[in-house]
């Protein structure tokens, strides 16, 4: 029997391939890193508990699986394991039948559980559908009628990216940015995909400008900041720097944005650039509370470098600021 890939998916996979990197950028820009990590840890723990419960008595027959799904009718984990049971036996029709049964059975209020089954169904048709593209499309068209359309689109995008169907992913993203033109998340996925495909500066700026035309004004700063962070992470830091500089030209008093800019340079590790940026920031006129934050960040960086002379330099700069008269 040929080896087959798992149909199981995590909730993060509803967000598209490479979601760990995308989520990290969202966390950094939103300041929610710890909360998201706790949620992820909880999901891992729940998944592990389900896996251990299943391992105690792994069903070996359809009757045993039927008994299990009757006892846990809303568990996508159990239903997908049942699909995999038939999948492993190369009985695709039975796997499809289980998927349909799961979608009929899972409570309508359990949207994430239903979505997990839809994504497993995508994966099944992506492996065995004939023709594959049409088979997946039919399941997708059904799924968007029953689940959050944005989540379903992102789930399909994730599958296309994971299976390196780049042309289909590109076409889907074009449709997504038209349908969800006010969604920062969708435009962010467009940016991420384009960067991964090595698109040039001119094209990237075109996408960013299209996004800004579609997004409400209140979403602009966060979108541009997330794009700049992603450019740093995707190997084009010079574009990320340019974008941060443009953002800060319009919002020079946003210490949170300066801090994010500094974080990206610190990740790259060019001490000359990092120190020049720190010096530039502490020369600006911010309220004492914000300056204290920036000096602490600068001092923490120099301590990580272990340069006593530089540490003394930062302390001296901080002392000079403290002794300087402040005008509100």
TrEMBL record:
Family annotation (InterPro entries): HAT, HAT_Syf1_CNRKL1_C, Rrp5, TPR-like_helical_dom_sf
Main location: nucleus
Record-linked Pfam families: HAT_Syf1_CNRKL1_C
Cellular location(s): Nucleus, Nucleolus
Region: Disordered, residue numbers: 13-36
Domain of life assignment: Eukaryota
GO cellular component: nucleolus
Compositionally biased spans, kind Basic and acidic residues: 13-27
Pre-mRNA-splicing factor Syf1/CRNKL1-like C-terminal HAT-repeats domain span: 74-322
Keywords (A to Z) from UniProt: Nucleus, Repeat, rRNA processing
The name this protein goes by in its record: Pre-mRNA-splicing factor Syf1/CRNKL1-like C-terminal HAT-repeats domain-containing protein
Organism: Triticum aestivum
Taxonomic lineage from the root: Eukaryota, Viridiplantae, Streptophyta, Embryophyta, Tracheophyta
């Amino acid at each position: 029997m040929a080896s087959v890939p798992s149909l199981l998916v995590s909730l993060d996979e509803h967000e598209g391939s490479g979601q760990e990197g995308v989520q990290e950028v969202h966390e950094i820009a939103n300041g929610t890193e710890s909360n998201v990590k706790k949620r992820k840890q909880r999901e891992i723990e729940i998944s592990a508990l389900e896996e251990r419960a299943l391992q105690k008595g792994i069903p070996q027959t359809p009757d045993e699986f039927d008994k299990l799904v009757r006892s846990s009718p809303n568990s996508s984990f159990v239903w997908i394991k049942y699909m995999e049971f038939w999948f492993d036996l190369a009985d695709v029709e039975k796997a499809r039948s289980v998927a349909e049964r799961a979608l009929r059975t899972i409570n309508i209020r359990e949207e994430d559980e239903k979505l997990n089954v839809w994504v497993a169904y995508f994966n099944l048709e992506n492996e065995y559908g004939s023709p594959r593209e049409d088979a997946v499309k039919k399941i997708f068209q059904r799924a968007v009628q029953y689940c959050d359309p944005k989540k379903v689109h992102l789930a399909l995008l994730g599958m296309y990216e994971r299976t390196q169907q780049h042309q289909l992913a590109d076409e889907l993203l074009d449709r997504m940015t038209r349908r969800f033109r006010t969604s920062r998340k969708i435009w962010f996925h467009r940016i991420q995909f384009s960067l991964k495909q090595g698109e040039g500066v001119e094209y990237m700026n075109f996408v960013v400008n299209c996004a800004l035309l579609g997004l409400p004004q209140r979403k602009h700063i966060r979108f541009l900041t997330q794009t700049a962070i992603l450019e740093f992470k995707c190997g084009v830091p010079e574009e990320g720097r340019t974008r941060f500089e443009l953002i800060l030209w319009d919002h020079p008093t946003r210490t949170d944005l300066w801090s994010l800019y500094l974080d990206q340079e610190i990740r790259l590790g060019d001490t000359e650039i990092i120190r020049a940026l720190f010096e530039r920031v502490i020369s600006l006129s911010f309220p004492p509370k914000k300056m204290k934050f920036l000096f602490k960040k600068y001092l923490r960086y120099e301590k990580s470098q272990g340069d006593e002379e530089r540490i003394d330099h930062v302390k001296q700069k901080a002392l000079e600021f403290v002794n300087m008269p402040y005008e509100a």
